[in-house]
Amino acid sequence: MASDTPLAAPPGASPPSNLRQRLFTGLAGVVAVAAVGYGVWWLLVGSHHVTTEDAYVGADVAVITPQTASAVRKVLVSDTQTVKAGDVLVELDPSDALYPLAQATADYDRTVRRVRGSLATTEATAAQAAAKAADLERAKAQLAAAASDLARAKLDASRREALGPSGAVSGEELSTARTLARNAEANYAAAKAGEALAEANLKVAQAQDAAQSALTSGVKLEDHPDVKFAKAQLEAAKLNFERTVIRAPVDGVIARRTVQVGQRVAIGANLMSVVPVAKAYVDANFKEVQLAKVHPGQSVTIESDLYGGSVKYHGKVVGVGGGTGAAFAVIPAQNASGNWIKVVQRLPVRIALDPAELARHPLRVGLSVKADIDTSSDPQG
Length: 381
Description:
Number of helices: 5
Mean pLDDT: 81
Order of helices and strands: HEEEEEHHHEEEEEEEEHE
CATH architecture of the largest domain: Orthogonal Bundle
Structural class: alpha+beta
Shape: rod-shaped
Helix content: 40-55%
CATH class of the largest domain: Mainly Alpha
Radius of gyration: 52 Å
Distance between the termini: 89 Å
């Protein structure tokens, strides 16, 4: 006969409700320990770091453009090729630059010869002025002598004139004295005219010397304005000729080469780019709420998707951008034109990388990276 009496629990067994209670208690303990651990980690580590994966490798790319218009004769590099600063990239046809160079060289030589002759002329005009001054002094001396002779001749003639009525002098002697007096007067007039001519010649010579000296006085051959202008024209022609050989301005890797042999290029045409991968940097776009403690000089750890977490780069914060991407967009947002929804903005932070680490593990422009800034390394204290 069946019995309605319930079966007794095995000795020492716990009710199911007690087991569940112990499990929940244990789970609560684990959660509490995890929360405490996370809190400790946040206080000691997490609160001193800001991280973003919106970060990319950049570099100051050198765009290669010709500075003179000509046909392309040689292209010596191709995409992905590594070059050093000064390496020849492209050679242009120099024919268009040779004629101006030859003309400028001839103009410079002609100008040097002309100015050298002008300097010599200055010396000659100065000598001529000195000679004319000597001529004037001689004319003055001759005038003084003529005046003395005239005074003596007049005195002799007057004495004989006084003795003439008494018969003390003959008529011939009196006539001779009068002739000598007239000759002395003529010589005096001629000497006076010679002095005036010498004085006029001196003034002309001095004016010529002053005019010539104004062009060359105190100026050496190489400092003369005409020579300096001709030399500048020659240097410009040389520079234009040298520009037919286009060289790499920096060390880097060739990218976006578009130039071909035989192509005629214009000034400013984009031929190729040189990417200085050894001087690459990172632009990390952090949310505005992450930037309160970010300052230049702080340490940054970088991980690249190219190498994964096995390679870490160490850099420094260079600075924070002057505006968000939305502010500098081609069509900026017009938040005052309708309904508004707040969107957390991002600011670019420039991060400089260690050149030695870049040399061991090169990066390329545009690669994505993960950036972690240690704000506890705040250089501002």
